[in-house]
């Protein structure tokens, strides 16, 4: 089950400058900064009541964020939904005909397991599913 919007991902060119900007906007500092090399990103997270904003800067020219910035410029990159059982949701969405970008969940930021759906199959919006890493899943993870 998709339980809530866990975060909204925003692609930025300069995360230090954007941290300052969003700190002023939200009147609160980021609670976490983390680099996830497997995704080619450096992130920072801001809490906004029940949800979060995730700022993303590319760590290499091959990063999905670098390609996105080149094509579309800065802005909303993805919407992440929290799921209670990521393997069960991946199976359900595959059966419903959605294009999963990952065969198995990948390590995400902020202690999450994540999987992406191709934006071409979701009205042009990249969707991330994420589950707390320490939650039990329907099957053991490799
Ligand atoms: C920090 C970890 C994690 C977390 O814990 O929260 C993250 O959030 S990581 C975020 C970064 N990682 C990802 O985005 C992984 C999933 N993305 C991908 O696999 C790829 O970016 C993609 C979506 C498959 C696109 O890759 P590719 O086909 O190689 O790139 P193109 O640049 O050629 O794009 C093809 C096509 O898709 C459009 N596109 C790309 N990204 C997005 C997007 N975020 N939202 C909407 N549309 C997107 C792109 O514009 C191209 O369209 P056309 O030009 O019309 O063909
Ligand atoms: Co994300």
TrEMBL record:
Its EC number is 5.1.99.1. GO terms for biological process: L-methylmalonyl-CoA metabolic process. InterPro entries: Glyas_Bleomycin-R_OHBP_Dase, MeMalonyl-CoA_epimerase, MMCE/EMCE_epimerase, VOC_core. It comes from the Bacteria. Keywords: Isomerase, Metal-binding. It comes from Spirosoma taeanense. The keyword Metal-binding applies. It is an enzyme of class 5 (isomerase). GO terms for molecular function: metal ion binding; methylmalonyl-CoA epimerase activity. The gene is mce. It holds the Pfam family Glyoxalase_4. Belongs to the methylmalonyl-CoA epimerase family. This is Methylmalonyl-CoA epimerase. The keyword Isomerase applies. Residues 4-132 form the VOC domain.
């Amino acid at each position: 089950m998709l339980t809530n919007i866990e975060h909204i991902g925003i692609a930025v060119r300069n995360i230090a400058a954007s941290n300052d900007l969003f700190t002023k906007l939200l009147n609160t500092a980021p609670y976490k900064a983390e680099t996830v090399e497997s995704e080619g990103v450096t992130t920072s997270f801001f809490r906004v009541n029940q949800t979060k904003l995730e700022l993303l800067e590319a760590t290499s020219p091959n990063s999905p964020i670098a390609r996105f910035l080149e094509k579309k410029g800065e802005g909303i990159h993805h919407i992440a939904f929290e799921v209670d059982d990521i393997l069960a949701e991946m199976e359900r969405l595959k059966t419903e005909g959605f294009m999963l970008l990952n065969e198995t969940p990948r390590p995400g930021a902020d202690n999450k397991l994540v999987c992406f759906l191709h934006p071409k199959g979701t009205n042009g919006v990249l969707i991330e599913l994420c589950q707390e890493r320490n939650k039990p899943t329907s099957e053991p993870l490799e």
